[in-house]
Design goal:
mainly alpha
């Protein structure tokens, strides 16, 4: 029976809730880069570029820990609990950042915050994909992942309005207020239908499918097909399934793509305001570049997903990474204002936009029994790049290398990411049919 005949709630409602949770990650992406200029001037801290880059990397180390642990945990205990726990953890971590009394305390607080964020994105993306119509998986994923740059836009606007007058602590204080969305999630965020079915909670799964218009018979059919397969028959799921011959090469390529993409995204977002200040722009103007970059990310996410649903994720991701490369090369030449804005916009489209599209590609590629683990693994390993990104930016900024290398250092991994995407194999599993290249 097609459950859609008794639909009482739109799956876009799930997208909206996941959008709110993913906005947490976007806010956190921007907050450190926006506050670095003030942290470098904090009285008594004596913080230099290398030390600031190290603190930025501590955050991302926490994210890597959270991602690697949260993916398989979500496949075990469900997406809903992990999302709520991640939001709570992020709020507490942001509060600790706001009251940090030294660079060391801030670094520890940022590490704690990162662990909480690691539980948010894999579960949110997986949940969005599972509630999306099969022909619109990339679009629904992109709508939810638009929360990523929107959270960054909110942070950038707050920084422009309040950083100079109220200092850096207030931005982290606003992050702690995110805890107010927890009651909404508790009462309205649904669990994954596939997860409930996998755990034998058939009646709950059927009721949710009917409420959201999901074809329950198709979900059951997909689950049975997986169990009939050589791997599924052995009850293998999570990381063990990812490391099987069926998915091993794909997950390694996705991880390498994420590594390069995250290096670019976090390196640029941590250091773009400071790079622009070094080029002669005042703090307020350099923060505006960060804002334009987020608008580019929103455009890349929405337009890219529309194209991916029609032409395939691979055919979209590789050109997007090359747009990022070209934009960074333009930035390295100190162009006039119009080209400068276009280049910053393109850098956001091709870096953050590509990263968010990659989430949807991974989620649609893998079956439900290892979807959370796949996102967590690829992004967790990819976070090594996000750890290196701020460090590399700090090293280049503190070195005697020329202005061009501030941007060449991030253009190179963008090219590598574009090449890696071309080697990702076609999806072979029924759940992955809409990730077709």
């Amino acid at each position: 029976m097609d459950s859609s005949s008794k639909k009482t709630r739109s799956s876009l409602f799930v997208v909206a809730l996941c959008f709110l949770t993913i906005a947490v990650d976007g806010y956190d992406l921007i907050i450190y880069g926006a506050t670095i200029p003030r942290l470098l001037e904090e009285p008594g801290w004596q913080l230099g570029p290398a030390g600031a880059g190290l603190i930025g990397s501590w955050t991302l180390a926490g994210l890597m820990v959270g991602l690697l642990g949260a993916g398989p945990m979500a496949d075990r205990i469900g997406r809903r609990k992990l999302i709520m726990a991640g939001v709570l953890w992020f709020s507490v971590g942001s509060l600790l950042c706001a009251i940090a009394h030294s660079p060391h305390a801030l670094g520890v607080a940022r590490f704690i915050t990162g662990i909480g964020l690691g539980g948010v994105v894999p579960s949110s993306v997986a949940l969005t994909i599972e509630y999306a119509p099969r022909s619109r998986r990339q679009l629904y994923s992109a709508l939810a992942l638009t929360g990523y740059p929107v959270g960054g836009v909110i942070c950038a606007l707050l920084a422009i309005a309040m950083l100079e007058s109220h200092g850096w602590r207030i931005l982290y204080g606003f992050g702690a207020l995110y805890i107010v969305i927890l009651p909404v999630m508790f009462f309205f965020l649904p669990e994954s239908v596939s997860h409930l079915l996998d755990r034998g909670r058939v009646q709950e799964a059927r009721a949710l499918a009917m409420r959201y218009g999901i074809d329950f018979d198709q979900v059951v059919s997909d689950e049975q097909e997986h169990r009939r397969s050589r791997i599924g028959a052995a009850g293998v799921r999570g990381y063990r399934l990812l490391m099987s011959s069926e998915f091993r090469s794909a997950i390694l390529l996705f991880a390498l793509m994420c590594f390069c993409g995250q290096l670019v995204v976090y390196g640029l977002n941590a250091w773009l305001p400071q790079l622009m200040r070094k080029s002669g722009y005042p703090l307020g103007s350099s923060l505006q570049f960060l804002l334009v970059m987020q608008f580019g990310a929103v455009a890349g996410n929405l337009c890219g997903s529309w194209l991916a649903d029609r032409y395939g994720s691979k055919r979209v991701l590789a050109p997007f990474f090359l747009i990022c490369t070209a934009s960074l090369l333009v930035l390295s030449q100190k162009p006039d204002f119009v080209w400068l804005m276009f280049a910053v916009f393109g850098a956001g489209l091709g870096s953050i936009g590509s990263t968010t599209l990659g989430y949807g590609y991974i989620a649609a590629f893998f079956p439900a029994s290892c979807r959370g683990s796949a996102i967590g693994a690829a992004q967790g390993i990819g976070r090594i790049g996000s750890i290196l990104g701020p460090m590399i930016g700090g090293w280049v900024l503190a070195s005697n290398l020329g202005h061009h290398w501030n941007f060449y250092a991030f253009a190179i991994p963008a090219v590598i990411a574009a090449v890696v995407v071309t080697f990702i194999p076609k999806a072979g599993h029924c759940d992955a049919s809409y990730a077709e290249v």
